[in-house]
Amino acid sequence: MSDADTRLAALEARVTELEDLNAIRRLQWAYGYYIDYNRPEEVAGLFAKDGAVVFLSGEYRGYEGVMRLYGTWFQNLFTGGRRGPVHGLLLDHFQLQDVITIAPDGLTAKGRFRGILAGGWHDDIVGSKPDGMPQQFWESGMYENDYVKEDGVWKIKRLDYLMQWQADYETGWSKTVAHLQPAVVCYPENPVGPDVILPEKEVRQTWPHRQEVPMSFAHPVLAKSFAVGDFTRLQEKWP
């Protein structure tokens, strides 16, 4: 190839990468908007054919599993089985701080996002609030997701949400224990349970417990990922 051909090929690859980054970012942000407004069918449509969701130490697999989580459990819990926004119910999901890494083949990718949720029931409908949940609450967690390009379209392969904390709005996170706890019973014994429970070593304890969330992306300066406890090797790279 000539120098011009080489430069053109590099530019085309870079443009494709930028388009892929924007497509994945749009995909994840759309997910947040769909769950805000209780639209489980649209949520499920964002996933690959063999997609999965990891939530509260359980994995929901395939279209049926995704719909069981967002359509059966969440919809029944928060809206009494009704689709769409409900008068007086707030469930706003903010998707922030994305770091997306496209694989060299351009067919798979990993993405890390921070999620923040503001939720609650207005006094008008506080009687519909599920037992055990605060009337107003905050939640935050990390997404470490896998994406795949199917037939030229980016989809979610595995949405892995690691809740970091939940807090009663009135008392704050210093006095709050998470109102959602790790899954312990699978479907169908639990009609809204996951298809499988994660191995014991991967169970996610909830707030106030804190744990490392491994990062899928390489260090932006050192161009290498460092494992937990690898601080000595990191120091060796410093001047």
What can you tell me about this protein's structure?
The structure is a single chain. The protein is an alpha+beta fold. The chain contains four helices and seven strands. The protein has a seven-stranded mixed β-sheet with strand order 3-4-5-6-1-2-7, with helices on one face. Strand 5 (136-150) and strand 6 form a beta hairpin. The model has no long low-confidence stretch (mean pLDDT 90).
- Averaging pLDDT over every residue, what do you get? 90
Instruction: Return the structural class.
Output: alpha+beta
Q: Report the principal-axis shape.
A: elongated
Major β-sheet strand ordering:
3-4-5-6-1-2-7
Uncertain stretches of 5 or more adjacent residues: none
| Gyration radius over CA | 20 Å
What's the quick description here?
The protein has 239 residues and is of the alpha+beta class. It has helices at residues 3-36, 40-44, 62-79, 231-237, and strands spanning 47-55, 58-61, 89-102, 108-121, 136-150, 153-168, 196-197.
